[in-house]
């Protein structure tokens, strides 16, 4: 991006304050004590810091645009999150630029270039390496992490994953008495899937039941659920219940079981995560975890707009609640 000179982190470190405080002092906004302001101004002068790229442009919202970066863009989950993000942005009279990195090698450079065209960026977990997020921060770009594991110094908005999956798995283990469960989803590279796998393991530990050694590592699309189920059955493994990292995968599992002449939940129970609209279309309904996808997008946009205005604590970690939704696919019969 061609930016030079000292960074916000260098000024903040020298003054012994947060980057948000440096931002407020540089732009002349917000509440800062006279003593702190003096320390920051001294550090700015010492480093010959000229925050024009950060100050007026952000105060005036020069671009009147926010960016949001995903690892991919297909499926109902992303559309719901984008819808919520765009709604909040429109109410603030700013536009939205959307990028799917699809894990391309040059995605870091593409996002750094995008940062020059927006006033702040929301980055979904798994879309970018941590070092690229840090580079964005060093350049003075407001960044909020979305559905990500927390990163020190970066505001984050995420949902309750591990505890929700533990509750759902405990329902299968304890309420139904199922002993042999399989987990379909790949924790590698996906913070959400990682937390859900951890919750799955925690429930087994608490119930005193031996969990599977490994998850069935596939993606998060319906076709991946079909592939995972076919792999399980072809290998002669037939779990009593299949716990999926998301609803799309679960729907693929159901199709694969039907293709083999197996019944859900009588032969094998199936659960998902997200509560997408299609989760209610099965004859018995899909037992799942409801997460507020649209609100996740809205809250991320709200937080990012506040960050652009220098009003967000970099240590903020906002966790939205989730709810287990019991339908028929787990064996409850309704």
Question: What can you tell me about this protein's structure?
Answer:
By secondary structure, the chain is of the alpha/beta class. It folds into three domains: 1-60, lambda repressor-like DNA-binding domains (434 Repressor (Amino-terminal Domain)); 63-159 and 293-320, Response regulator (Rossmann fold, 3-Layer(aba) Sandwich); 162-291 and 324-330, 3-Layer(aba) Sandwich (Rossmann fold), CATH 3.40.50. Helices cover 42% and strands 13% of the residues. It has twelve helices and eleven strands. The chain has a six-stranded parallel beta sheet with strand order 2-1-3-4-5-10, sandwiched between helices. A three-stranded parallel beta sheet has the order 6-7-8, with helices on both faces. The chain has a two-stranded antiparallel ribbon with strand order 9-11. It is elongated. The N and C termini lie far apart (56 Å).
